[in-house]
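Give me the 3D structure for Mitochondrial import inner membrane translocase subunit TIM50.
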Amino acid sequence: MSSSPHPHSASTKEDNSSTWTNYSSSSSMPLSIDEGDTDLTSSSTPVYYDEATGTFYPTNGIRPMTPSYMRIASQEPVTLKTPQKLLVILDLNGTLFYRSKNNKSNVTARPHLTPFLDFLFANCRVMVWSSAQPHSVKTMLSFGFGDRISKLDRVWSREHFHLPPSDYSKKVLTIKDLEFVWDEIKNENRAAGDPEMYEFEFDQTNTVLIDDSAAKVQLQPHNGLALQDFDKDLASAGTDHELLKVRRYLEKLVYQQNVSAYIRLHPFDSNAPLDKDEAKEVKETKETEGDNAHGKELDDLARRLEKSTV
Ligand SMILES: [Mg+2]
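Predicted structure for Mitochondrial import inner membrane translocase subunit TIM50 (310 residues):
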């Protein structure tokens, strides 16, 4: 379990390399504004602060992991003959978009976003959960989702973390506790009073969170796909293929009876090189878009992979 020094921590992340220090937010330490457009409010209460990331520890601590979680995630994966409908929860900034820190209305969509969204809306129940404030969420969605916004199951923002007011406007570690989502859907189904709706309940066997921060999914670590942060450099390079890789991972995942069991054994690997089919798809996409800058490079890669395939 956790080695975090915070008395309330129940983090199960193995990476506890960041150092939480007891830090008074009333000092003048400069902080960057986080993706929630937040301003640091002054407070004389000492709080824990991670200097490496400029992030405060949640005032209320982190709840313990649900006791049954690891037991269910430790089951043997079972492959289904027909796909099941997954609930996919999407982060926005750093995952689907890069938003300029200087000009927040300047948004860059991650490459392969359109086929990625097409796959999701055709096969999954899709919602958004961003730690940004509602107006920023709206900006990013109107930029990149177009008329798909209406197909979203629900859109959650910073308002859905159950943060105390003192944390809402601070750059605080925000954890996407999937229990909040599952409870809300369950309550809606109960309120609808239709027993047939019960089958649409969601839990760790059929829910996936796609986020650029593994820390956000630490309460349900085997339900998260941690993507490389789509930052300024990646946004300007135009060579990022993460969403293509995620889509192909999800194409397999929908055939899993218990996604947490599968993800535990076969986590999404952001660093894995493109496989043969992925390289081919990238090349075709580039050609369609008239972008031949990486054409030769991808050609060579596809040829090499072709030869190495047994
Ligand atoms: Mg993010």
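Residues 35, 91, 93-95, 211-213 surround magnesium ion (CB under 6 Å). Let me know if you want a second pass.
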